[in-house]
From TrEMBL:
InterPro entries the record matches: MFS, MFS_trans_sf, Sugar_transport-like
Source species of the chain: Marinobacter alkaliphilus
Protein name from the UniProt record: MFS transporter
TM spans (from-to): 62-82, 106-128, 134-152, 172-193, 199-222, 258-278, 284-309, 321-340, 346-363, 383-405, 411-431
SUPFAM superfamilies: MFS general substrate transporter
Keyword Lyase carried by entry: no
Amino acid sequence: MPGQSNAPVDQLYALIANEEDARVCKDIPEEACREVPRNFFLILAANVLTKLGDLLISPKTVLAWMMSAVGAPALVAWLVPIRESGSMVPQMVIAAWVRRKAVRKWFWTLGSFGQSVSVVGMAASVWFLEGYAAGLGIVAGLVVFSLARGFCSVAMKDVQGKCIPKTRRGRLSGLATTIGGSLTVAMTALLFWDRGDPTLGFYSLLLLLAAALWIIAGVLFASVEEFPGETGGGSNAMTEAVQSLSLLREDAPFRHFVVTRALLLCSALASPYFVVLAQKQSDVGWMLGVFLLASSLASSVSASFWGWAADTSSRRVIIRGAAMACAVCLLVGFSALIFGPDVGGAWFYPAAFFVLSIAHAGVRLGRKTYLVDMAGGNKRTDYTAVSNTVIGVLLLVTGGITAALSLISDIAVIIVLGLMGFTGMVSALRLKEVTED
């Protein structure tokens, strides 16, 4: 019941918050402060479940394998762009709609249910269709999945900003990533330990399991005690969406953040090229499992550290993550250029991928915390929507440029992305501090 004390939950939250009181609330109303411990763990559990679901339908692994298995390998190239940009580009319109509601947790719950339905549709396409019909069914399901994810992205930052104190948001994200990463380590071991090529039925069952995880996450998130907040209304969603773009012109700190975030796309875009170089060096089946394990371990060992650090200064977390990302990209790129792609033996690229994954976790968590902390009320929703929409478009553009450049040289792509990351780090140095009061 709202306002009712739950001693075990409060004590566990006090331990995580590292405070005697555990009720130091910043930037949220007093009534919401009373519900912080319970809301903290509900949001944490929902995040963990969705992170595990993301592993089970990863476009880079599971869905890509399925495309080849059903006979539609040419459609693999569309998976990652749709997965990332499909949830970002329409967010200004989504945010204009969400902003009209005083309670916004239901958008996240419906978005989670929508992702579940879309994943069931993908599984149905695999079972009942063949060839490019099955492939197009998977792509269509991924489009719906990404749109539903857009509602979750907008609503999550706003609900978290209303329900979790300013200096506890980073550790919430960090714990979710750490626990989710630990579970993905276990899942990776189950997938690749002493197993041949999994059957199509095995992967289809993974999709159904992922769908169940999103249903449970949606139910948990619906239990969050969210108090009514500010609303915006008036014009239609498209008009409001176009008007919100004026933030890029009128709000200099926000514009600077978006530019910095765009430059730091390097940490996400470089990862596949590490895998490509490793495959050229040693094309063995267990190597994919090593990369998945490296990614999961990186999240597990680094996310809580980044989360706690972001509660002190999310700006410094962005800077440190950017420095690591550009350093490892330039090291790998120039080493491969000078000594050849076979440099360093079989473990060179997985080790570099591990470091890059740690850096990406820092950049991602730091910029998420920074965005939530730099705005309040409806501005938080607008900032999230505008930045995600712009980044979604830029991701498609940058992805297209790097894809064209990769036709010339994969090594050149890594070096260019490393230089892009260095520029992003310099830009991050000029960000205003927002975490500390």
